[in-house]
Amino acid sequence: MDSPIVRAVFSFVGVFVWIGTDKKYPKTWNLQRLGFSWLVKRLLSQPSPPPVDGKYPPRQKRRAPAPPHDITIEQVLVPRVALPGLDKNPIAEPMEAEWIASAKCNDASPVVLWSHGGAYVVGEKEMARQHVYGLARAGIKTLSIEYRLAPENTYPDALLDAYSGYQYLLKQGVKPERIVIAGESAGGGLTLSLAIYLRDHGVQLPAGITVFSPWVDLTHSTPTMYIAHEFACDILPQLPKEGRAGAHPAAKYTGVDKYAERRMVPTVSPLFDGEKGLPPQLITTGTHDRLLAESIAYALTRQDRGDVVQLEIYENQPHVFQLFDCKPTQTSYARLLEFVTTVTEGKDVQPSATELSDPRSGPVIATSVPFSNIRDRLAKLMERATKDAPWAVERAKSGEGGSGGGWKVYVEAAGVKEK
Q1: Residue ranges of region Disordered (predicted)?
Q2: Tens of pLDDT, residues 110-127
């Protein structure tokens, strides 16, 4: 949203959204945010074009804005490598990726491996840029990868590409203790899937993990995906009661014919990983994020397993709110930098849960809360979903029809007793 013309378009749309909607958007949101949220939601609600003669139309890459004068972008090709246990025959073509750095970076700099968002069906490596410019200016390099997208490519292709990116860093001489793996939305889920795969296959783990609004539950069991009210403001649409089979990105990612059997595989849906042993994790979400409940459930599950988790919940913020230039975004980037610096310097990271304010004036206030408060928040969200969409909760419990089935994890994370 760097272009004045783009900002003007979003503001224009935002005027009509503000006038013509009964949704209670936060008062801290400006017209650009209203317009952007409305347009993105409409875009995500549209079905993707079907294949013609068995082939999908070529993807159109958007023209990325030029980076700031103090930032350097270097395009590279990353060799694809085999994924032991999942894919022994990777395609021969290398993967596109780009280095994002500044004059402060050098061969000894920490490195972030970034996977972009887009529900596994859209997106490109350039999406990482705005998130990591601050890291680059602090002397931290980022390698952003162009992993393969669905429906043309299904699981485990994206995971293979993320694994190839990690192996590329190791072969470049970057030590694991200097690496942080990161991503937003689906890229956040892919990042966590990569960590699980590395752990399970004995590959040395990175120093840390950081994810924005990660998509960790592809079973559609997430309570906040079915609640209206504040979540109606989010860029993610509410899931309908009935939908066309295979239309949702989750099925496109797993393969429509494989969705039922793959949806709970931990390297597809990291929420269902029952083991411990991952590096320290920073998980960021917002109170208006439709993936809020699964971010909370994932963080609590990791905490219960004995992993170190820092969970941050930002007031009034939607899915991947870091797309917007606002005080919470600036705070989030500062805390991201602090986390990356801490773990790559080998310092201890303490588990924490933090709620952060959305002030109309003054600084963002960070308040530490006990994890018991977070459990209570999840339990209340589950209760609301039960009232608003009992059909969705029943499907989440039973798994009938080949979707859902993940409710038990939320029950365990919240520490509630089912009636």
Answers
A1: 48-68
A2: 999 999 999 999 999 999
